[in-house]
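ping. complex inputs:
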Amino acid sequence: MHGSVFTQLERYVVAGHPAGTWEALLSRAGLRERTYDPLDNYPDEEMTRLVDAVVEASGASRQGILEDFGAALAPALLRMYWSLVDESWRTLDVLEHTEANIHRVVRLKHARAAPPALEMARTRPGEVILTYRSPRRLCALARGIARGIAGHYGERLEAEDLACVHRGDAECVIAFRVTEEAP
Amino acid sequence: MSDHGGHIRRHLRELREVFPADRVDRLTARLRLPQGSQGPEQADLAYCLHYLEGVRFEIGEMAYRLARVNFTLVGCLAVAAAYEQGVRQAARS
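pong. complex structure:
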C-alpha cells in the first residue's frame, strides 16, 4: 500500500490527541519505531495491524473508522497528486476517472502500491456506480474517500450499498449520487 | 506539448493552500516573479528545473519530492531529463 495512506493515517490519528498517540499505536500494532515515507510503499498487512490497533484503542467499529479515515484521506490525496486531477472536475468526475487516470498511473509509477481495481460507471447524470473487488475488503475506506472528495468540492454525496462483501456478496457495489451543493 | 508554465502556476496555487504565504512568496521572489504573481505565463524545461530547485530550497524536501512526482506525471520532467542529456552530449561533442 502506498506510503501516503500511512502518513495520512498518522495525521488522522494524532489530530486532537496528545503527543505520543501515534507512537503508542505503532507499539500496539507491533510496529514500534516504524516510519513511513509518503512516496514509498509498505505491506498491506501493516495497514491492517494499524487499523486494528485504532479500532481496539477507540472502541469504534472498523467500518466506521475506515470510512471516517477515508473522508480525511481524500482531500490530502487530491492535494498531493494534483497533477492527476483536472481542475474542472467535481466529485463524480474524480470518481469516474479514478481507475483510468489515477490508479493506472499509480500502478505505472509505483508497481508495489497495487491500488484496488475499480469499475466506475456513470450511469446517469448525478450518479456513479462503483464496483469494488479487492482482497483488502476496504469498501468502507472507498466510501469514505468518496465522501471526502465531495467535501473537498463542497458537494453533498449520498452512498447506497447495493452489494457488499461484508454482507456475504461476491463484490461491493456502491451507488454514489450528488444530491446538492453542501451549505 | 506540456504546458510547463500552467503546471507551475497550478503547483503554486496548491502550495498556497498548504504552506504559509511568506514561504511561497519567498519562492516566487527567488524565481524573480513580480509580487502577487500567480506564476510564469510561459516556462521552458530549464525553468521547470529551476522552479523545482526553488521549491526544494524554500518549501522543503518533501514538497520538492512530491512536486517532482507530479511534474513527472504531467510530462515536464521526462522531457527535461532528455533535454539535460542532450545538453550534456552537446557539451561533450
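The first strand of chain A starts at residue 117 and ends at 124.
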